[in-house]
Amino acid sequence: MSPRVVAAIARRVLTQLRRDRRTLAMLFLLPTLLITLLWWMYSNDGAVFDRVGPALLAIFPFTIMFLVTSVTTLRERSSGTLERLLAMPMGKLDFLLGYAVAFAIVAVAQSVLAVGISVGLLDLEVAGPVWLLTVVAVVDAVLGTALGLLVSAFARTEFQAVQFMPALVIPQILLCGLFVSRDALPEVLGALSDALPLSYAVDAMTHLGVATTTAEVWADLAVVGGFVLAGLALGAATLRRRTA
């Protein structure tokens, strides 16, 4: 792995994103618009918004980054750009880390905006520190990036990349504890929930919403970080140079 090559790939991706205004709008504005819609829905019952808001600050960035990253990376491969890049002195891990760094920078701006508006303008009440809420949101977005990079190795078209969303993202949303407490899930589903990274991301956000202690939050973040590293490693091992 070469830090210089990773930085060059990250700069390239950020330059492309800067020129794609629609994608930028989706990355920066959509999480905020969705959380604002949720606030509006529960404007007559702020307690519900305070209960589910932190969890959705984990889910929205994760989902959006998964979708954008998987489609963008697949486009690089199907267009032949990835094959030309890998013909240079650069490894697959350099390519994936460059993408991860670029989207992590985007995730920071995305999360600061979403958390800032949620807490500052929409009066989302959280017991834990707001800065840690932002850190969790960033890590969750990076998790979506890592999984998006992973699934892009298996898809042949952009449509197939989108099809991975109901297979990998929606089950995690259903089992993360947002709709039913994880402790109340049937035994098999509870065990499955324990194996899914979004469950720990939502646990961290939910804990920050109701408690001031942070030890459990850091433990959950460590698990999510492990899934990020595993996703990048598997992505590097399975990434193909071009779509057959």
Task: Describe the fold and architecture.
By secondary structure, the chain is mainly α. It has one domain. It is built from ten helices and no strands. Helix 6 packs parallel to helix 10. The longest helix is centred in the N-terminal third of the chain and has 33 residues. The radius of gyration is 18 Å and the shape is globular. The mean pLDDT is 85.
In short:
This protein is mostly helical and 244 residues long.
What's the total helix number?
Answer: 10
**N→C terminal distance:** 27 Å
Helix content: over 70%
Query: Main β-sheet: number of strands, strand sense, barrel status?
Result: none
Question: What is the beta-strand fraction?
Answer: under 5%
Oligomer type: single chain
**What's the mean pLDDT score?**
85
Our Rg estimate from Cα atoms comes to: 18 Å
What is the SS-derived class? mainly alpha
Following the backbone from N to C, one meets helices and strands in this order, namely HHHHHHHHHH
Shape: globular
What is the total tally of β strands? 0
Low-confidence stretches: none
**Count of distinct structural domains:** 1
Topology, pairings included?
Elements: H1 3-19, H2 21-41, H3 46-78, H4 81-86, H5 92-120, H6 130-151, H7 158-175, H8 187-194, H9 197-210, H10 215-238
Helix pairs in contact: 1-5, 2-3, 2-5, 3-5, 3-6, 3-7, 3-9, 5-6, 5-10, 6-9, 6-10, 9-10
